[in-house]
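Standup notes, protein team

Yesterday: finished cleaning the Methanoculleus thermophilus set.
Today: MFS transporter, DHA1 family, bicyclomycin/chloramphenicol resistance protein structure.
Blockers: none.

Input for MFS transporter, DHA1 family, bicyclomycin/chloramphenicol resistance protein:
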Amino acid sequence: MDQSLSGQNQRVQKYLGDKGLVVLIALLSAFVPLSTDLYLPALPGMGDYFGVSADLTNLTLILFFLFFSLGLLFWGPLSDKYGRRPILLAGLALYIAASAGCALSWSIWHLSAFRVLQAIGGSAASAVATAMVKDVYDGRKQESVLSIVQSMVVISPAIAPVLGAFMLPYTSWRGLFLTLALIGVVSMAGALLLEETIPSRYTGTVAQSIQRLGAVLRNPGFTSLLVVFSLVSTASLAFVSASPYIYQDWFGLSEQWYSFYFALNAIGLIVGPFLYLWLSRHTSRWMIVASGFAVMLVGGALVCLFGNLGPLFFALGLFPASLMGSAVRPPGAFLMLDQQKEDTGSASALINCAGLVFGSAGMILVFLGGENLVLSLGALNVAVGAVCLAGWAAIGRWGLVRS
């Protein structure tokens, strides 16, 4: 596939314009957390409605993650062959239909089946979103757009459960799935206005296009970066999953106070990518990333040492780790995409899939360290910061990355 640099192929979007395209990409990037976390507050009620155990109800969540990850690896390479727009339209059509099917489900098994279809359709949105950034933008502009995208990725898991809890007094769990269908319709409207962004398409067969995933992984620069930066999701999603148990069960706070303290750390997640853009005007990308990993390590140590003294000590100790863990995401995504001058869809799929897999691992690992989740989360941040810092140094020492 002869694919030249994205900046040389940049096209003006006739209908969406530049701002409309950025909004659409940001919305598509939020599909995972919106589809999983919006209905989390409704899970107990859904179990009661269907008369099933919590394990069966949680199956709707587990199946979504599994098939979303698999879908990414399917849609990403196909978007290199057929283009971003057709894949996005097909995925969104399936997502909308499946979301409506979830809302109309009459048993937990029907709901689970529709959740699988919803995951497969929604994964097209995430796979295409990051690829479009590489298609359309380059250099400083690409990093700016990636900062917005990464902010959506890290803050949506925080906002979605709160939004779902706010909606439940006024609607049922069915209403939450109808809301997801509506989000799909809004995204579809944007996709219909979208003009194709891919500069050139892969000309091999479908099987050969999917095999390009292996070709991307054989790039040592891309794969080393993929491992290092995906590890960051282990710590960030561990906090999202453990935070209600830490603040409400361990510290005994009310739901209102939990929201306040959670918002404090969420601010770090939101501000981090934009802090990177500001810092990048004054120092090198390599130094910012190294400092970010070091701060994660130190923040985790502060949580281990002082986090159990109270919720404020915990929140303030974790804040720098949340801030800098989020700040390294845009340069990480930029560098990974920069290693691939072709197969952008495959690279985008692997980036999103790896982040999801490592993040899911973090949501499990934080609960394996015993009852003291504060200590477990602090230790996890120390470990992630140390491993990422060592990996980053090794990448630089061995000259694996082109930047």
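Follow-up from PR in the comments: The longest helix spans residues 220-250.
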